[in-house]
Write a structure and sequence with these properties.
It is built from 2 helices and 4 strands; from the N terminus they run H-E-E-H-E-E. By secondary structure, the chain is an alpha+beta fold. Strands 1-2 form a two-stranded antiparallel sheet. A two-stranded antiparallel sheet has the order 3-4.
């Protein structure tokens, strides 16, 4: 159970920087920082010691500006308009086909009515009816002399 107890104190070790000697001072000065960062050691719960430099938290990067879409909104609207126009044209083709079929159906009904009505009239006129009603016209030989009718 000893390894599960938390340490009571944190040991911090600060290294002592070694000043560069005179011949090497000029060569090392531009590339070396002005001070050596502090080294920190932490005793982990399992007894191990982790040693390293303290890090300052990095600043969060600035949010990137919103990326422009690959295609402009105008182009998208034009494309959607074209799709809508194609859908309307398809609907209009169906509508004109329906109107043409309806017109053909009405035309056939008119022709059928004309045939039936014409047949009824033909039977009435040409039929052999033996009824006594109607007007009887007697045709005789008429004579016209000197612009006068003798009948």
């Amino acid at each position: 159970m000893d390894h599960l107890q938390r340490p009571t104190a944190v040991e911090v070790h600060h290294p002592i920087p070694i000043p560069p000697t005179e011949p090497y001072a000029a060569a090392l000065a531009p590339g070396q920082p002005g001070h050596v960062p502090a080294v920190q050691s932490i005793v982990l719960p399992d007894g191990r010691v982790a040693t390293g430099y303290t890090l300052t938290p990095a600043a969060a990067p600035a949010p990137a500006p919103l990326a422009q879409p690959a295609v402009s909104r105008t182009a998208v609207n034009i494309a959607l308009g074209g799709i809508g126009f194609a859908a309307v044209c398809g609907g209009l083709v169906l509508l004109t086909g329906f109107i043409a079929a309806l017109a053909a159906f009405v035309q056939q009904l008119i022709i059928l009515a004309a045939v039936i009505f014409g047949g009824y009239i033909a039977v009435q006129i040409l039929g052999t009816s033996r009824s006594g009603g109607g007007t009887t016209v007697n045709i005789r030989k008429a004579v016209i002399k000197r612009n006068r009718f003798y009948g």
